[in-house]
């Protein structure tokens, strides 16, 4: 039972000792430590928050960059498409022009050929006429009597034609 | 919650006290019966008497056998007729190490009593436990002040040295023990809880050192700590707390006749449970440890010696764990009691 009865001396010493420890440490140890911990925790919290906001800013910047790039790409595509269309149009136009010119040239050539042909035909007609007149003149001039003479003369005339 | 808690505590308390009594009596009984049966009564008694010797307080600090193995501590007595008297406890022993009376006092089984009948003295001696208390206070103060100086010298820097050892524990006590149990007004109580935790923890661990005294396993020490928690709890008790005790809300009027005494007793059982829990845990640990060591001396066999050494190392490691757990539990329950006294209740039937 001795164990279960608190000794008065130890009780008093413990009370005094513990209270001294409590007041001493409260003032000189726990308060400064707890305050320092609080300050540090706050600064860590702040640092974490600023890091978080920096991260958000970074993400925003990246998103902006991406958007800009996307826009630039779209613009480039549009420009390319426009240029292609323009080039095609120019090509088409040029082709049309060339065809037109070609056709005109062909038409001109045909006209020239037709004119020439008519001229040649006219000349030929005139020549034939002249020849016919010549032959007729000769026939008339010769005063043909016999069949033999006529025949010879025709042959001669034909020879003449050949020469011509 | 509190009624359930009380019930739990009372149950725990009852069982712990029972266990303690049974273990004490079984020890004494075992030794006594051994002594009566065997012829060497004195020697067997001597071989295991060191256990109870260690558990109890003493006026001298016995390290090893022999005259120089003992530190005689100062005896301080105060009496109304003689005033303050200070002398060495070695005066109670003569040259042959026989107990003698000195200056009108004698050392009667670890208590100084005056020879004259009817005189009463206040014994303020630096006993073994008081010396141990002073050592514990010095160690705790050193650790705490040393780490505090780090924060003062390097504000805002990471902890280093002693501070890095204490800081996680301080944060643990603050964030895991005090804050969740006391609530928003916790900050006022953190210094007390830290002092409590470190005193009990360091005291428990120092008590495990070879040759050290069983300070935190002494009921006077645990009683002081429990009484301080009791005072802090009740001084800080708010209206809800006292209303809960003397006019428990939601209880019919006739039942209050029963409830008020129960709640009133509950005020005292809580600190009583604190006192007993720490005392029993540490004392029982020391008894178990010393009993296992004592086996070697009792059986005087190498095999038992080896076995008891291995087992005592194992128990010692467990005791380090118990030392920490008991410090944690004492702080935790103190926080819970204070928390229940300062909590703001916004509801009527909280049971």
TrEMBL record, chain A:
Pfam families listed in its UniProt record: ATP-synt_B
Quaternary structure (record): F-type ATPases have 2 components, F(1) - the catalytic core - and F(0) - the membrane proton channel. F(1) has five subunits: alpha(3), beta(3), gamma(1), delta(1), epsilon(1). F(0) has three main subunits: a(1), b(2) and c(10-14). The alpha and beta chains form an alternating ring which encloses part of the gamma chain. F(1) is attached to F(0) by a central stalk formed by the gamma and epsilon chains, while a peripheral stalk is formed by the delta and b chains.
Name assigned to this protein: ATP synthase subunit b
Keyword Iron: no
Methyltransferase listed as a keyword: no
InterPro entries recorded: ATP_synth_B-like_membr_sf, ATP_synth_b/b'su_bac/chlpt, ATP_synth_F0_bsu_bac, ATP_synthase_B_chain
PANTHER family to which the protein is assigned, alphabetical: ATP SYNTHASE SUBUNIT B, ATP SYNTHASE SUBUNIT B', CHLOROPLASTIC
Subcellular compartments: Cell membrane; Endomembrane system
Major location (coarse): membrane
NCBIfam families reported in the protein's UniProt record: ATP_synt_b (TIGR01144), PRK14471.1 (NF011041)
The protein's role, per its UniProt record: F(1)F(0) ATP synthase produces ATP from ADP in the presence of a proton or sodium gradient. F-type ATPases consist of two structural domains, F(1) containing the extramembraneous catalytic core and F(0) containing the membrane proton channel, linked together by a central stalk and a peripheral stalk. During catalysis, ATP synthesis in the catalytic domain of F(1) is coupled via a rotary mechanism of the central stalk subunits to proton translocation.
Coiled-coil intervals, chain numbering: 44-78
Keyword line: ATP synthesis, Cell membrane, CF(0), Coiled coil, Hydrogen ion transport, Ion transport, Membrane, Transmembrane, Transmembrane helix, Transport
Domain of life: Bacteria
Gene3D superfamilies per UniProt: F1F0 ATP synthase subunit B, membrane domain
The family this protein is said to belong to: Belongs to the ATPase B chain family.
Membrane topology type: Single-pass membrane protein
Membrane spanning residue stretches: 12-30
Automatic annotation (TrEMBL), chain B:
Chain segments annotated as transmembrane: 126-145, 189-209, 215-235, 255-273, 279-299, 306-329
UniProt superkingdom: Bacteria
Keywords tagged on the record: ATP synthesis, Cell membrane, CF(0), Hydrogen ion transport, Ion transport, Membrane, Signal, Transmembrane, Transmembrane helix, Transport
Protein localization: Cell membrane; Membrane
Topology within the bilayer: Multi-pass membrane protein
InterPro entries the UniProt entry points to: ATP_synth_F0_asu, ATP_synth_F0_asu_bact/mt, F0_ATP_A_sf
Signal peptide: 1-32
Pfam families for the chain: ATP-synt_A
NCBIfam families reported for this sequence: ATP_synt_6_or_A
Entry similarity comment: Belongs to the ATPase A chain family.
Function, as annotated: Key component of the proton channel; it plays a direct role in the translocation of protons across the membrane.
Protein name: ATP synthase subunit a
Biological source species: Shiella aurantiaca
């Amino acid at each position: 039972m001795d164990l279960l009865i608190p000794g008065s001396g130890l009780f008093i010493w413990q009370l005094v000792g513990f209270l001294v420890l409590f007041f001493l440490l409260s003032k000189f140890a726990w308060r400064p430590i707890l305050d320092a911990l609080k300050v540090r925790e706050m600064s860590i919290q702040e640092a974490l928050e600023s890091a978080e906001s920096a991260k958000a800013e970074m993400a925003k910047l990246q998103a902006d960059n991406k958007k800009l790039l996307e826009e630039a790409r779209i613009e480039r595509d549009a420009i390319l498409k426009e240029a292609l269309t323009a080039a095609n149009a120019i090509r088409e136009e040029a082709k049309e022009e060339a065809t037109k010119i070609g056709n005109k040239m062909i038409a001109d050539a045909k006209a020239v050929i037709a004119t020439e042909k008519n001229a040649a035909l006219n000349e030929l007609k005139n020549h034939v006429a002249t020849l016919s007149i010549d032959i007729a003149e000769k026939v008339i001039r010769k005063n043909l009597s016999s069949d033999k003479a006529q025949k010879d003369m025709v042959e001669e005339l034909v020879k003449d034609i050949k020469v011509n | 919650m509190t009624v359930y808690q009380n019930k739990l505590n009372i149950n725990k308390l009852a069982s712990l006290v029972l266990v303690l009594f049974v273990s004490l009596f079984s020890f004494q009984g075992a030794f006594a019966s051994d002594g009566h049966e065997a012829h060497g009564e004195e020697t067997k008694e001597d071989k295991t008497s060191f256990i109870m010797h260690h558990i109890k307080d003493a006026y001298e600090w016995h390290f090893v056998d022999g005259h120089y193995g003992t530190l005689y501590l100062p005896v301080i007595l105060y009496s109304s007729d003689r005033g303050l008297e200070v002398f060495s406890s070695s005066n109670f022993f003569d040259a042959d190490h026989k107990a003698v009376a000195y200056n009108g006092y004698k050392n009667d089984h670890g208590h100084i009593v005056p020879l004259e009948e009817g005189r009463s003295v206040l014994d303020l001696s630096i006993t073994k436990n008081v010396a141990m208390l002073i050592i514990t206070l010095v160690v705790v103060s050193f650790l705490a002040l040393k780490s505090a100086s780090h924060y003062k010298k390097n504000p805002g820097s990471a902890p280093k040295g002693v501070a890095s050892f204490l800081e996680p524990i301080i944060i643990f006590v603050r964030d895991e023990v005090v804050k969740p149990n006391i609530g928003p007004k916790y900050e006022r109580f953190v210094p007390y809880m830290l002092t409590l935790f470190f005193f009990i923890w360091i005291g428990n661990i120092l008590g495990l050192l070879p040759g050290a005294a069983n300070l935190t396993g002494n009921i006077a020490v645990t009683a002081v700590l429990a009484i301080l928690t009791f005072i802090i709890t009740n001084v800080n008790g708010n209206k809800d707390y006292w209303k809960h005790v003397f006019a428990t809300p939601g209880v019919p009027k006739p039942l209050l006749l029963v409830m008020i005494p129960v709640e009133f007793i509950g005020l005292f059982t809580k600190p009583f449970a604190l006192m007993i829990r720490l005392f029993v845990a540490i004392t029982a640990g020391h008894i178990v440890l010393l009993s296992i060591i004592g086996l070697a001396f009792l059986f005087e066999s190498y095999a038992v010696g080896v076995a008891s050494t291995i087992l005592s190392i194992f128990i010692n490691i467990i005791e380090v764990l118990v030392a920490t757990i008991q410090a944690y539990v004492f702080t935790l329950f103190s926080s819970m009691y204070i928390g229940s006294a300062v909590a703001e209740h916004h509801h009527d039937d909280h049971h």
